[in-house]
Design goal:
Length: about 900
RNA sequence: GCGGGCGUGGCGGAACCGGUAGACGCGCCGGACUCAAAAUCCGGUUCUGGUGACAGAGUGUCGGUUCGACUCCGACCGCCCGCACCA
């Protein structure tokens, strides 16, 4: 009598093996069905997957399996973002080689991913550290170089003087190198840049077309690109022995405030500042001080405005007699605009702070809409809004917008040194992308430096430029640079002795085109096949973490454009049509009285009657404190190992849990109770399907017309749930889809429970057959192993993974009678059960006749009755 | 500082275009089965009052629009995220 418990540990591997053997998830490029490309951001092969991966990849897998069932030819590939520093760090620590470490990690993570039961086409697997991949990346680099999309220029970097390496901003902690602890220096190095700024306007404008992206991400990208419209203004420098320069150009977005100018300020590394410093030791010292302070966030935060008067004076463009001093100021950035600004203290807080510190005063020239022009003054808070011009000569009385226009027009028409004094200019915050890294474990930049010929591209036939295997770690500096022979090669042009570029590429380059490579991953001769790219791309649904909202997604969008310009992607404009950013997996924290963090696996949590919870060590029983819920991290030990969960409960339980509870874009709290709930539900579904199988008609039995009430109700519940699950999966609202499956299971259990005699009528048997099959196929994208086992129990010898999505019949869901809630003055008082077709007159009469309505009216006359068809009745008294 | 988002039972969350607030799950309470426990099944569970039918209150706070507001508008409070000397 008792059904055997569903044994996930035994069942799941069996089905995975069958999927594998039958090639169920291999995708053919030539397939004639409509395509659907679903992609999750590929992982870094750190060695172990974590729950965040499980959540991310499960979501993608639900979509892939669902779309497959709906008749799409689905591309769902997986690969490895395999270059990067951790491999080099590991190499230093265990005296291993980055390649060995990385490929071993890939092998174990591949097994872990397979244990989740993801419907991936593993035949398309790629690893970015594979020469077969980075060979093509080098080709792309060379094509970009030929197309003028690559630049080589000097640029400031964070330099770690102990490790002899460049540090990314996030590797600088409190001004020190994260590994060496040495104080980081600002150094100028010659670096390779990809000219992303070429596409700044296009990358910004095209955001509007991405209507299946979260608004938040589009906004973050727009802010990052940071377009501003302004004016370049050249100021005439009064002749001085300090410099030969005759003019100084500034950038401003507020030419309307020109009459409020009190000074000009230039960046410490502005050429004019350097020039003046040669004859002014005080200035040289000030500049050195600014550079030492660096650009770290806290330096900026606490930074007071400091400046140094160069002694130079410039002429105000609207008044030949008016002189303005030129300061070198620590708050002016060299790499935005021209590295020089005019200071208008009344209408810019930075300028005001500076002016107040140096006693420069201020002139208000914009009067706020609600202020009196006669008395408006600025002391501590600058007014940076718009308003009406005052104290501004010919601009007086104009609005800010008019004044901007008028000032720009005048400056364009006046000229100094035969050039217009002002020029309109659109500026972007977005800088070119520096891709040089002084590291070993990355894609070599395929260039050879020759004394005679300069930087020479490696001929395409010589690609890939492979990383040498015999390298040493543990010493400071770049192993490639240190290698005795690798960098010495003849110049491809003149044949003379030359040196290879020893910088490798930023790993963000690797992930900027992998989605395109997946469409034809074994193409030996080219990075992509245009036909395959045009067929598969854009990615229909891309899923990943919000932490990549800016850089990765912007770089990939840039690459798409650069690849289009070099003929690699056909007419593709945007790489990702739909984007979804999922939340994290979080867990509460446990800490012993001694202050040690404890893994959830080492803690037993008890819930007392009434709901109070306390936690105890498994070894020793000591009580530990329960801390706040935080992102799973190794440092706080609040992690749960997917392998252990899968071993204990099975993959379907883990998949079900990460989909349930929270909306997918929000964080999900991992709890032991929740996981157990999911595990129980797996068992419950198995029992329910088993019971239904015993009561149901044989497979293939059609559902007859004119079912008795009980069977009709079952069908109604089934099709109602099916429609909702469809909508929920389409809209990625997995938590609601989960709730629908629960709800249907509850209803079907009740229907089975209501059967009294062992003789079930034919209508009910047919309805149960349909119910069981729909139920199984409905949860199959979410719990694929259980679905296969149930499908077999229902008498099928085919795979559920290959079964088409059941067709929902909307007509079945339509009710003959409707239940209308009746309100009196907006408060619900009763329900009204009526024929579907009842007209408003009949509804009104029936509503007013209700006893509860009359009682609530308390004798007041009815003013009107509002009837919203199929929705509600409101009696207004 | 600038930009964006979010505040709903004990908890995670539902609620379509302004139309029955609290679907579904977790927890808790009660019951059945059992010698007992686990597992399973059934019932209850926003708060207050009432044995009860029922009544009143209720979606961060205050106000507005509306026949009707979790939903729209305004102000405020709290939390979260991103950017941050970008002229």
């Amino acid at each position: 009598m008792d059904v055997e418990r569903y044994n996930a540990r035994e069942v799941e591997p069996r089905w995975r093996e069958l999927w594998d053997r039958s090639g169920t998830f291999l995708t053919q490029n030539g397939d004639s069905r409509p395509k659907y490309y679903v992609l999750e951001m590929f992982p870094y092969p750190s060695g172990r997957i974590h729950m965040g991966h499980v959540r991310n990849y499960t979501m993608g897998d639900v979509i892939a399996r669902y779309k497959r069932a709906r008749g799409f030819n689905v591309l769902h590939p997986m690969g490895w973002d395999a270059f990067g520093m951790p491999a080099e760090n590991a190499a230093m620590q265990n005296n291993s080689h980055p390649a060995g470490w990385t490929y071993a990690n890939i092998a174990s993570m591949r097994e872990q991913l397979k244990a989740i039961g993801l419907s991936l086409d593993w035949s398309r697997e790629i690893a970015t550290c594979d020469p077969g991949y980075y060979k093509h990346q080098q080709k792309l680099f060379l094509d970009f170089l030929a197309a003028g999309l690559v630049d080589r220029k000097r640029s400031k970097v964070n330099w770690d003087p102990v490790d002899h390496t460049v540090l990314a901003n996030e590797q600088v902690i409190d001004g020190r190198g994260w590994r060496s602890g040495a104080i980081v220096e600002q150094r100028e190095l010659t670096q390779w840049f990809l000219k992303i700024s070429t596409f700044a306007e296009e990358l910004l404008a095209s955001l509007d077309t991405l209507d299946r992206w979260p608004e938040k991400v589009r906004l973050m990208q727009a802010n990052w690109i940071g377009r501003s419209e302004g004016l370049l203004i050249r100021f005439e420098i009064l002749p001085t022995p300090r410099t030969a320069a005759t003019e100084l150009e500034v950038y401003t977005t507020r030419p309307d405030t020109l009459f409020g100018a009190k000074f000009l300020a230039i960046a410490p590394d502005h050429p004019l500042a350097q020039d003046c410093a040669e004859s002014d030791p005080g200035l040289a010292a000030f500049i050195a001080e600014c550079q030492q302070r660096g650009t770290s966030a806290e330096a900026v935060e606490t930074g007071e405005k400091k400046g140094y008067d160069t002694g130079l004076r410039v002429r105000h463009p609207f008044d030949v007699e008016w002189r303005l001093p030129v300061y070198v100021a620590n708050f002016v950035l060299m790499d935005y605009g021209t590295g020089a600004v005019f200071g208008c203290p009344a209408h810019d807080q930075r300028d005001l702070d500076f002016a107040n510190a140096y006693g420069l005063g201020n002139i208000p020239v914009i009067c706020p809409p609600d202020a009196d022009p006669a008395t408006f003054k600025v002391t501590e808070i600058a007014y940076d809004g718009e308003g009406t011009l005052i104290n501004s000569g010919f601009l007086d009385g104009l609005s800010s917008a008019q004044a901007k226009e008028e000032a720009a027009r005048r400056l364009e028409e006046s000229s100094i040194g035969n050039h217009p004094q002002g020029r309109r200019k659109v500026n972007y915050r977005l800088r070119d992308w520096g891709v040089s890294r002084q590291r070993y474990w990355g894609c070599p930049i395929p260039v050879i430096h020759c004394e005679a010929c300069g930087a020479v591209p490696v001929p395409a036939a010589d690609l890939p430029v492979e990383l040498p295997k015999d390298v040493t770690f543990g010493e400071p500096g770049n192993p490639l640079d240190r290698h005795p022979t690798w960098k010495h090669v003849p110049c491809p042009t003149c044949g003379g002795p030359a040196l290879r570029e020893t910088d490798t590429m930023d790993t963000f380059v690797d992930s900027s085109w992998y989605f395109a490579r997946f469409t034809d991953p074994r193409n030996e001769t080219a990075p992509t096949s245009v036909a395959a790219v045009e067929h598969w791309l854009p990615v229909d649904q891309y899923i990943g973490g919000i932490e990549h909202a800016i850089l990765h997604l912007l770089y990939a969008r840039f690459f798409t454009r650069a690849m289009q310009a070099t003929g690699h992607v056909g007419a593709l404009k945007e790489p990702f049509d739909g984007l979804f950013t999922q939340g994290m997996v979080v867990h509460e924290t446990y800490r012993s009285p001694a202050g040690d963090w404890l893994y959830p696996a080492d803690v037993r949590v008890e819930t007392q009657a009434g709901g109070a919870r306390s936690a105890f060590r498994l070894d020793g029983g000591e009580e530990v404190s329960i801390g706040p819920i935080e992102k799973m991290s190794k440092s706080k030990r609040n992690t749960v190992d997917p392998d252990e969960i899968i071993l204990a409960y099975g993959a379907d339980t883990a998949r079900w849990f990460v989909l349930s509870d929270s909306p997918p874009e929000r964080d999900v709290i991992w709890t032991e109770e929740g996981v157990q709930g999911s595990a129980k539900f797996v068992q419950r579904l198995w029992r329910l399907v088993d019971e239904l199988a015993g009561l149901a008609a044989p497979p293939g039995t059609p559902v007859p017309q004119g079912l008795p009430e009980g069977a009709a109700a079952v069908r109604k519940a089934v099709h109602g749930a099916l429609i909702k699950v469809e909508e929920d999966i389409e809209r990625l609202r997995f938590n609601r889809a989960v709730a629908q499956v629960h709800d249907l299971a509850n209803k079907l259990s009740a229907a089975v429970g209501a059967i009294e005699s062992p003789e079930v009528d034919a209508g009910m048997r047919a309805a149960f057959r349909e119910a069981a099959e729909v139920l199984v196929l409905m949860f199959a994208p979410m719990m694929p192993h259980l679905a296969e086992e149930c499908w077999a129990r229902l008498g099928h010898s085919t795979l559920a993974a290959n079964a088409p999505w059941p067709a929902a019949d909307r007509a079945i869901v339509v009710e003959d009678t409707i239940t209308l809630p009746v309100q009196v003055n907006g408060k619900k008082r009763a329900d009204l059960v009526l024929d579907r077709g009842a007209d408003t007159l009949a509804i009104e009469a029936a509503a007013l006749a209700l006893e509860q309505v009359q009682r609530a009216l308390e004798g007041r006359p009815v003013k009107k009755v509002i009837i919203v068809p199929q929705r509600i009745v409101n009696v207004v008294a």
